[in-house]
Amino acid sequence: MVMRLLVRSVDVRAVVAALLLFVGQVASVGQGASAAEFAIDYQTDIEFGTGGSEKLLLDLAKPKDAAGPRPGMILIHGGGWAQGGRNDFADIAKECAAAGYVAATIEYRLAPEHKWPAQIEDCKCAVRWMRAHAQELGVDPDRIGCLGGSAGGHLALLLGTMGSEDGLEGAGGWSDQSSRVQAVVDFFGPAEMVAEFEHQRRGAGLAALVNRKVRILEDFLGGTPDEVPELYKQASPVRYVTRDDAPTLILQGTHDILVPYDQSIKMSAALAKKGVPGRMELVFGAGHGWQGDELDHSKRVVFEFLEEHLTDDTASGK
């Protein structure tokens, strides 16, 4: 039986749950936890910008006949920054739309062909695209959140903590718009990249899972922490935390061999120290995602969090 540990900290109302959002398992997320309130419209292959010379595409789920501007959501798939695709989050996008959100599940350039910071540049471009097209999409530009799993969780944390002053906006389009978000949902994304590298180097993580040497972070960042130390720092969400960051929900299992749960604890502690609103829940015995009653519970917590923070009177951002 999986147990949940609720973690509370000063100025942070914490209740956080873990959700199954890893490549190959993610399709079940959209099933069975919440009743649909709206019929949905689903569109595919929408160009939202460019990454270098490549067109960037997203799929869009919208609630039909929903009154007024709706909150927007940017959904970011996982896969070690090197695999996966926007269709991985199709069911989540549809469930978000059924709950009244305009949800875009996006693609981004993948490693090793495309090194950091291509991935965060593309995610920022997607936020700017949604904000630039808010009127035609029926989106409130001041109520845009993001949700990501694993590598996508890492990118979601960066969207919630980075400001334009931190750079890495890229040249994908819509430069007159802000790339800030007003709420973040992170499913077991790494927050401090040097520590994550050491976890992999010790033979843990994916290397232990497949019994071979892997180069996830080297392929993503272009080398080891000794070779490219500034890039490891630049790609670490924990280093960007400030008091005006977006409210953040962090979800993590204690038996996650890919991203150890101390990554989420570090991020939660940094956010709490700055007084950023948020919630965190460690699920005892859970790995890199789970199903059943715990998954249903997690989805309820996610939608409660989004409802709390993506409203007119609570939206915030740098």
Report what the structure shows.
With 318 residues, the protein is an alpha/beta fold. It has ten helices and nine strands. The chain has helices at residues 90-98, 118-132, 134-137, 151-161, 193-201, 205-210, 216-221, 229-234, 262-274, 292-309, and strands spanning 3-7, 40-51, 54-63, 70-76, 102-106, 139-149, 183-187, 248-253, 278-284. A nine-stranded mixed sheet has the order 1-9-8-7-6-4-5-3-2, sandwiched between helices. The radius of gyration is 18 Å and the shape is globular. The N and C termini lie far apart (41 Å).
Question: What's the helix and strand layout?
Answer:
Layout lengths: L2 E5 L32 E12 L2 E10 L6 E7 L13 H9 L3 E5 L11 H15 L1 H4 L1 E11 L1 H11 L21 E5 L5 H9 L3 H6 L5 H6 L7 H6 L13 E6 L8 H13 L3 E7 L7 H18 L9
Parallel strand pairs: 4-5, 4-6, 6-7, 7-8, 8-9
Antiparallel strand pairs: 1-9, 2-3, 3-5
Helix pairs in contact: 2-4
